[in-house]
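Ops channel
N.P.: pipeline sanity check, posting one input/output pair.
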C-alpha cells in the first residue's frame, strides 16, 4: 500500500496551501447539509415533544372516543375499572351575545367538561381563577378571539343554544388543544351539567364523547394490554382508542409529511450545491494542471494522483459537512421561541443525532457524486496533454470502474432519500425531476453555446462589436455557459415550481368561491325543524339554491373483510358522515353499477364515491361494516357515484338505502347558496327560530384553508429560497473562477483597440444571455413540475402563471448580470502588457 502513503503525503502538502479555491465548495455543501439538518431537527423536536408530553396533550393516559353518543352505564363501569375517568363532549355551536334579532353570532367549538377535567395539565385563564369557579352557576370560558369577534368583556352574557351563560374568564391556555385536531371556530368551555336545557345535544346531534383515563404511572406494556382489553370489551361499540403514545396523530402526520417534503426541497438545494462542488473541483484541478503534469513526469501513477486529490476533497467535504451540521443544529435552537409560539404542541428542542446523521449521509453522497467524475478523469490524461492543454479542460471519459462507482453512489443517494423521507413515491419522482432538470439544463447550455457560435458569424451582428464578442465568448471553448446555466437554472426551477403551485392554489380558491361555493352549511337541523327552515330559505329571493340531505355519523369497521385499522386512508380515520336516500337524487351521477330501486327494503346496500373506492381498492359486491350509534351495519357496495368534493356542496362518500337506517336518530344538513348581502339576515332568522342549528360560513372555512396553504407556501418558499441562495453562491463561484480568463480576454481586446465600454457591454450581454437561458429552462421545468404535482398529487387544475414566470426570467438575468459585472472590474483595470507577458 505504498501508493496510498504517497497519495497521503501529496494530499497533506497540498492542503497546507489553505482553502483557496474551495470556499464555494464549502459554502455549497454546508448550506445544503444545514437546510436538511435543520428541517429534520425541527421535525424530530416536535415528534419528541409529542411523545414526552403525550399525557398532557391527550388529557390523560388513554382516551376512548364515541361518535354521536355517550357511553352507557355498563361501558362507563368498564372504563372506571381502569382508573379515574373524565367525560368531555366536543361539538360545534353558534355563540350569540343575545337572543333577539340584533344579536351578534359566531361559530365556536364547545367543550363541555366534568369536575375532573383536566386530569393532566392545567387550564390557564385570565383572570387567573380556578376553572371550577369559572364554570360554576352557568359560567363559561371563551377564547380571546371569540371575545373580540363578539365584542365581549368579562361578565357579559353569552348564549349557546337556548341557554344563557355568563362569561367569567378568557381561555389563555388549553393543555389538550394539540390533540383536538382541526376546528373551525374558537374554543369555549362550559360545565357538562350546564348543557341541560340548552337543546344542543340530542339524538342525532353531531358531537364526540371523549372519556379520558388517568391510569397512574403505567408502562407501555400495560397500555398495550389495556388496549387489547378495551378493544375486546368494546368490539361492537364503534369506539376509538388513543393513548399518550399517539396523542396528536393529525399533528404528527402533518409534521412528518411537511418535514419530509422540505427535506426533498433541501435535497434539490444540495443538488444545486453539488453543481457548485463539481465546478469548484474542476476549477481547482485546472489550476493544478502543472502540478499534476509534473507529478506524472516524475513517475507518479494515475491512481496515486487520483487518491491524493480524493483525500483532499474528502477532508474538505468533512469540513463542509461539519459546518453544515453545526448550522443545522443551531438554527432550530435559535428560532425555537418562534416555533413554539406557532405550534399548539410542546417542542423538545435540542441536538438530535438522527437528522444530523441523515443530513451528513446526504452531504457525503452528494460530494462523492459530484466530485468523482472530474477527479476520475485526471487518471487517464497523459502529462504531455496536460502541458499542451491551455484551457485545462479534460475531455477523456473516466474508466468504467469509476462510472460504475458513480452510478452506485447515485442509486444509494436516491434510495436513501426514498427510505428516509417516508414518502418514497414523491422522493423517487423528485429525484427523477432533478435528474431531468439537470439534463435539460446541460442541454440548454449546449444549445446556447451552439446558437451563440452560429449567431456570432451572421451579418446581423456585424457592426455590433459588443454583441458579437459576447456571442463569441458564450459559444467559444472553455466558456462558463454550462456552470452558470446549471447553478442558477436548478435553483430557479425549484422556485418556479413553488411559484406555479402557490399561484394556482390561490387562484383556484379565488376563482371557485364566488361561482360554485354555498354561503352556509347548516348542520344539526332536527327533523321537526326542517319545514320551518326550508320555508325561510327557499322563499328568500336572494337565495338561488338550497340542498338538503339527512346525515348521521358512523365509523368504518371493515372493508371487504379487512379491518379499517389496517387501512391508512382518510375515509377510515375517525368518524365519517353518512347519509341515506331512496333515489339517486338530482345531479347524482352513477358511473358504475345500479342504484337500488325506489322503496327498496332488502339487505342494506351502499353507494360509494368512485374516486375513494378506487383508492381503497373497493369493488362492486364488496361488503363494508359500519358502526352507527353503537350498532354494526353490514352493507354491500352496489354502485359507484361521481362526487366532486371541491364544489363545496353536499357530498357523501357513503350513502345507504333508506330502509337500512330507518329509525336511526339523525339530523339534516343543508347548503344555502345566497347573495352575500343576504347572509347576515338568513343567519339571524334561522338562529332566532332554532338556536341549536349550527351555521358554518363557507367563506370563513375557506379563509382558514387559505391561511394553512399560505403557511405551507411560506415554508416551501423558504426551502426554495435556500436552494436559490445556493445557486447564487455557485453562480458567484463560476464568475470568480472565470475572472482569470476574462482578464486575459480583456487584455487581448484592449490591445486590438476595444474600449472599456465595449468590453464591459460585452461582459454584461454575456451574463444576461446566460441568465435568460437559465430562467427560460427554469420556467419550462417549473411549469412541468407544478403541473405534475397539481394534477397527480393535489388533483387540481393547472393554469400557467405568467407573472411568476416573467419574474423568474428577469431575476435570473439580473442575478447573472450583477455577478458578471461584480467580477468584471479587475479584468478591465488590468494592464494588457503585464497580463500578456505573463502568458509567455
Amino acid at each position: 500500500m505504498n501508493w496510498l502513503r504517497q497519495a497521503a503525503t501529496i494530499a497533506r502538502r497540498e492542503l497546507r496551501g489553505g482553502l483557496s479555491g474551495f470556499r464555494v465548495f464549502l459554502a455549497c455543501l454546508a448550506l445544503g447539509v444545514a437546510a436538511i439538518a435543520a428541517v429534520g431537527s425541527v421535525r424530530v423536536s416536535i415528534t419528541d415533544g409529542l411523545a414526552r408530553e403525550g399525557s398532557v396533550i391527550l388529557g390523560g393516559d388513554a382516551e376512548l372516543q364515541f361518535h354521536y353518543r355517550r357511553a352507557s352505564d355498563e361501558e362507563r363501569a368498564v372504563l372506571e375499572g381502569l382508573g379515574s375517568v373524565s367525560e368531555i363532549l366536543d361539538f360545534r355551536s353558534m355563540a350569540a351575545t343575545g337572543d333577539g334579532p340584533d344579536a351578534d353570532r359566531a361559530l365556536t367549538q364547545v367543550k363541555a367538561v366534568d369536575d375532573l377535567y383536566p386530569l393532566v395539565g392545567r387550564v390557564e385563564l385570565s383572570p387567573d381563577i380556578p376553572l371550577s369557579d369559572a364554570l360554576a352557576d352557568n359560567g363559561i370560558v371563551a377564547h380571546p378571539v371569540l371575545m373580540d369577534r363578539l365584542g365581549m368583556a368579562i361578565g357579559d352574557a353569552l348564549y349557546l343554544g337556548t341557554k344563557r351563560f355568563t362569561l367569567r374568564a378568557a381561555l389563555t391556555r388549553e393543555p389538550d388543544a394539540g390533540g383536538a385536531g382541526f376546528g373551525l371556530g374558537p374554543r369555549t368551555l362550559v360545565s357538562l351539567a350546564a348543557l341541560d336545557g340548552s337543546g344542543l345535544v340530542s339524538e342525532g346531534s353531531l358531537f364526540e364523547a371523549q372519556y379520558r383515563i388517568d391510569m397512574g404511572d403505567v408502562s407501555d406494556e400495560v397500555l398495550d394490554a389495556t388496549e387489547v382489553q378495551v378493544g375486546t370489551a368494546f368490539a361492537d361499540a364503534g369506539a376509538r382508542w388513543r393513548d399518550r403514545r399517539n396523542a396528536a396523530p393529525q399533528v404528527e402526520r402533518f409534521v412528518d409529511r411537511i418535514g419530509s417534503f422540505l427535506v426533498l426541497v433541501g435535497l434539490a438545494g444540495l443538488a444545486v450545491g453539488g453543481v457548485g462542488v463539481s465546478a469548484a473541483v474542476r476549477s481547482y484541478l485546472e489550476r493544478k494542471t502543472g502540478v499534476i503534469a509534473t507529478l506524472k513526469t516524475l513517475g507518479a501513477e494515475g491512481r496515486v494522483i487520483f487518491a491524493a486529490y480524493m483525500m483532499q476533497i474528502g477532508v474538505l467535504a468533512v469540513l463542509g459537512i461539519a459546518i453544515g451540521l453545526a448550522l443545522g443544529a443551531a438554527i432550530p435552537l435559535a428560532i425555537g421561541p418562534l416555533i413554539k409560539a406557532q405550534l399548539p404542541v410542546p417542542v423538545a428542542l435540542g441536538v438530535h443525532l438522527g437528522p444530523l446523521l441523515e443530513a451528513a449521509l446526504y452531504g457525503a453522497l452528494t460530494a462523492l457524486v459530484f466530485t468523482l467524475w472530474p477527479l476520475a478523469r485526471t487518471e487517464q490524461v497523459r502529462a504531455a496533454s496536460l502541458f499542451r492543454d491551455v484551457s485545462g479542460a479534460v475531455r477523456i471519459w473516466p474508466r468504467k470502474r469509476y462510472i460504475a462507482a458513480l452510478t452506485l453512489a447515485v442509486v444509494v443517494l436516491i434510495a436513501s432519500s426514498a427510505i428516509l423521507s417516508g414518502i418514497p413515491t414523491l422522493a423517487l419522482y423528485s429525484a427523477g425531476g432533478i435528474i431531468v432538470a439537470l439534463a435539460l439544463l446541460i442541454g440548454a447550455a449546449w444549445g446556447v453555446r451552439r446558437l451563440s457560435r452560429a449567431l456570432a458569424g451572421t451579418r446581423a451582428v456585424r457592426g455590433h462589436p459588443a454583441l458579437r464578442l459576447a456571442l463569441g465568448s458564450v459559444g467559444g471553448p472553455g466558456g462558463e455557459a454550462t456552470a452558470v446555466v446549471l447553478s442558477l437554472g436548478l435553483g430557479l426551477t425549484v422556485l418556479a415550481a413553488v411559484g406555479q403551485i402557490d399561484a394556482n392554489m390561490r387562484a383556484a380558491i379565488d376563482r371557485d368561491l364566488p361561482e360554485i361555493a354555498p354561503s352556509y352549511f347548516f348542520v344539526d337541523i332536527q327533523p321537526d325543524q326542517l319545514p320551518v327552515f326550508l320555508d325561510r330559505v327557499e322563499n328568500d329571493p336572494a337565495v338561488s339554491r338550497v340542498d338538503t340531505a339527512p346525515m348521521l355519523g358512523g365509523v368504518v369497521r371493515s372493508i371487504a373483510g379487512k379491518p379499517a385499522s389496517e387501512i391508512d386512508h382518510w375515509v377510515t380515520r375517525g368518524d365519517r358522515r353518512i347519509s341515506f336516500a331512496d333515489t339517486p337524487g338530482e345531479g347524482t351521477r352513477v358511473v358504475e353499477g345500479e342504484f337500488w330501486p325506489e322503496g327498496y327494503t332488502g339487505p342494506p346496500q351502499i353507494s360509494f364515491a368512485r374516486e375513494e373506492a378506487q383508492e381503497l381498492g373497493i369493488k362492486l359486491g364488496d361488503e363494508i361494516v359500519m358502526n352507527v350509534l353503537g350498532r354494526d351495519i353490514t352493507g354491500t357496495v352496489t354502485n359507484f357515484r361521481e362526487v366532486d368534493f371541491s364544489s363545496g356542496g353536499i357530498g357523501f362518500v357513503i350513502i345507504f338505502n333508506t330502509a337500512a337506517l330507518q329509525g336511526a336518530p339523525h339530523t339534516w344538513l343543508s347548503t344555502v347558496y345566497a347573495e352575500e348581502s343576504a347572509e347576515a339576515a338568513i343567519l339571524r332568522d334561522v338562529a332566532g327560530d332554532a338556536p341549536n342549528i349550527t351555521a358554518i360560513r363557507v367563506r370563513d372555512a375557506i379563509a382558514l384553508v387559505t391561511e394553512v396553504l399560505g403557511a405551507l407556501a411560506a415554508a416551501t418558499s423558504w426551502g426554495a429560497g435556500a436552494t436559490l441562495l445556493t445557486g447564487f453562491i455557485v453562480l458567484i463561484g463560476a464568475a470568480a473562477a472565470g475572472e482569470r480568463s476574462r482578464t486575459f480576454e480583456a487584455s487581448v481586446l484592449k490591445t486590438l483597440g476595444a474600449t472599456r465600454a465595449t468590453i464591459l457591454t460585452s461582459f454584461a450581454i454575456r451574463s444576461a444571455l446566460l441568465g435568460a437561458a437559465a430562467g427560460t429552462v427554469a420556467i419550462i421545468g417549473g411549469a412541468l413540475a407544478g403541473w405534475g404535482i397539481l394534477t397527480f398529487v393535489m388533483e387540481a387544475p393547472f393554469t400557467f402563471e405568467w407573472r411568476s414566470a416573467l419574474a423568474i426570467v428577469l431575476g435570473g438575468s439580473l442575478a447573472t448580470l450583477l455577478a458578471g459585472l461584480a467580477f468584471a472590474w479587475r479584468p478591465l483595470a488590468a494592464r494588457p502588457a503585464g497580463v500578456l507577458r505573463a502568458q509567455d
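N.P.: looks fine end to end. The chain has a mean pLDDT of 80.
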